[in-house]
Here is the input.
Amino acid sequence: MVRKLDWSKYFKIEQHKIETFIKTFGAKKIYAMGLMPIRGPKGFRKLDYEFAEKGLNVVEIMNKLEEAHFNTLGIVIKDTDGACTWDTKVGWNPTNRDILGEFCDEGKDMSIKIMVSFTSMNDAFQGYLHPKRVSVHGKNGENFGKKYVKGDISTHEAYEMRVDLPNGISYNDYKRKIPFLTEKKDEKFGKARGTRGTGYIPTESFMCPNSAHINYLIDLIKEVVKNYPIKAFTADYIRYDGHFTDLCACHRCLKKFKVKYGDKAKILKGKDWIEFKTDTIAEYAQRVQETVKNIDNNCLTGWYSQVGPKKLVTLKRHGQDWTKLSSILDISVPMEYPYLAGTRDDGIYWGLIGNLFYWYFIRNMKRRAHEYRNPVLGLTNSVECNVKEMLKQMRGFDFGLGIAVFKYFGTSNEQWKALKEYAEKEIGLENL
Ligand SMILES: [Zn+2]
Here is the structure.
C-alpha cells in the first residue's frame, strides 16, 4: 500500500476553520461521492435528459452510498448545459423533476449529508438565450478548426458532452428540447482525454462574469439555499474558459478595466489585466458568500480549484487566485484528476501518461498548498481509471479532511468494492 503523505506541513489553515468544517459535516473525515444527474448512466461524456427524467433512481442511489459507507453526497445541481435540477421558478429545468428535493427527502433519515455543486460561468442554455452575456474574444484565433475573430462571442463546440437522440425522436424534435445542439456528430471514440465522447455535439458558452449572468446566478442560489436543507453550496466553473487567453474583452469588461487602471493600461496581458480577471472572479465569490450566509449562516460555501501552473494557467487563463478565493469562501475543492489524462487500461503508454500526471499533481500541490486559506477537500476520479489508480489518487489527495470521489455513474463493481473497503480501513468507521 502507498504510504499516505503528511500534508499538514504544506497547508496553513486556521484551526477554527477546520473545526467549523468538521462540525458542519458531523465527521472528522468527509467521504463524498459525486453525482451528475444529467450525464447519463455511464461516464460523464453524455448529456442525457431522458435518463435524468426517467432512469435516475434516487432511493437506489442513496442505498448504494450508505452500503459503501459514504457520509456525503455531492450533487451537481446545475451542470455546464445550464439545466437547473430542482424546483425552480427562475431557471430552466428540462428534467421535469425536482431531483435535488428528492435526494434531500431521501437523505433526511440517513446519515448522508448533501452538498451541491453549481456550475457558474459555463452555461450553454444561457449562452443560447442571452448571446450578449457570453464572453467576447479579444483576438482572432481558431478553436477545433473553426476560426473566430476579435469581437466574436466565445460560444463554441462543447469539449466533453455529446448527445444521443432518444429512440424514435428526430434531431429536429430534440433540438427543440436542447436548443444549443449542433448538427455535427463525433463518431469515433479516442483514448486521449478530449476525444472520448461520441454523439451530437452541443455548444458551450462561458458567460461574461461582468454581465447580468451573475445576477441570474445569485437568484438561483437564493432559491436553492432557501428551499433545500443542504450542508454546503459549492461553486464550480468559478472562472474563465481555460482554453483561451483572450477572454473577456466585451465592452463591459473593457470599460470597467479602464476605469480602474486608466486608458493606457494594457488589455489581455500584463499584471493589471490578470489582477482585473482574478478580482472579477473574487467579486462573484464574495456575492456567493453573502447570498448564502444571509439565508443560512450554517451552510458552508466552497469553490472548485483548477490545479496546474500558477502564472500561466490558473491566474492567466482561469482568473483563479487561490488566496483571494479561499479567503472569501469556506472550503476549497481542488480537482485532482491525473488518471483522466490516461489509464493503464488503455495500454502501457496511457498508463505512463497517467502516472506522470499523478507525479506532477502531487508536486504541484506541495508547492502551492500554502496559497489556500481555508480547509481543502481533495476531489478525485473513479471513472475512466482502474481500481489501483483510483485508490492511489484517493490516498494521495486526502489532504487531511477525507476525500471526494467523482462520480457515482461510471464506477465499476470492482471499484465499489474497493470504495467500501477503503471506508472501513482508511476513512475509519467512527467517521461514517
Ligand atoms: Zn465581459
Q: What stands out?
A: The longest helix spans residues 270-295.
